Amino acid sequence: SAVPSSHARSVGFAFALLCPALSISRLADHFLSGMDTTLALAYLTAYFLLIHRHERSGSLMGGVLAGVFGGLAFFARPDLLVFTVAIPVVMMCVRGGRGTRRGAVPVLCATLAALVVGIGSAAWYFDSPLPLPAYVKATRFYGDAIYQSYAGVARLELRRYVLKYWYLFVLIAGSVCLRPLQWWRLSTSVDKGMLAGTLLFLGYHSLFVLPVMYYSQLLLYPTLPALIWLAARGFISLGGTEIGAAFGENGDPRFVAD
Fold it and tell me: Rounded CA gap, 179 and 68, in Å?
């Protein structure tokens, strides 16, 4: 099969490392805030590494491990389940080979099993299946006055977040919209799941969540690892030809035989 050239992948990897460095001051704000944003970022980064490794290996034990870890998103931050459920569902739905689809089954089953155990344990120990912030932010827990006070804030924070990381969104949108067939062919099932999870997560928080303690887009920052990964993949997809040509690769410089 065709894969990005080694030079294109190296440049994409360097891009992925550069993005957190460019965001260091913003990440430091969240690290020092005492909120759970840094935990959410670390958790999702670890989960993405696990699920990508499982996609490559296809081992049953790796799938169960990734699934159980995915179910633990409930304890890290319940809204992170958008990613850990969406990714195995997309893996099962898109065409990525029978092995990929079979490999998604233990991931999804283990995720749901761990989630059920987590909800049951929380309900038994805390007398509540969900933490209080989940009720406050995702249901009409308070009266209409507080919703009027926060009207438009979620969408404003989304605009600020997009403007802050415009280069990531541009690369992702460019790779998907300008070369959709190439993006679909080169991206893995997990990549597609990460994109779906990112869109669902941002849509959920901009439309359905009361943005209490919304400062510095802390509710949206868990998407940053996915944005960096997808933008790096988009960078490779859009610039593979030019990168390969710059390094003097023969034939179609964008790809080499796998």
Answer: 35
Residues in the chain: 258
Separation of alpha carbons 255 and 80, rounded Å = 35
The residues facing 255 across adjacent strands are: 4
Contacts of 2 (CB under 8 A, 6+ apart): 185, 186, 255, 256, 257, 258
Nearest 5 degrees, angle CA 42-CA 43-CA 48? 100
**Token digits for 238?**
């859009």
Long-range pairs, 56-59, Cβ under 8 A, ≥24: 58/99, 58/100, 58/102, 58/103
Mean of per-residue pLDDT scores for the chain: 80
pLDDT of residue 18: 63
Tokens found for residue 81? 């389940």
Reference 15, options 241, 239, 257; nearest CA is: 239
Give the span between the Cα atoms of 103 and 55, in whole angstroms.
Answer: 7
Q: How far apart are CA 76 and CA 67, in angstroms?
A: 15
Helix 98-126 and helix 81-93: axis angle, to 10°?
A: 150
Q: Are strands 2-4 and 255-257 parallel, antiparallel or unpaired?
A: antiparallel
What average pLDDT does the segment 9-23 reach? 58
Give the C-alpha separation, 65 to 69, whole Å: 6
pLDDT tens figures, 74-125: 998 899 999 999 999 999 988 765 557 788 999 999 999 999 999 999 899 9
pLDDT score of 17? 58
Number of C-beta neighbours around residue 240 at 10 A: 26
* Amino acid 152: pLDDT: 84
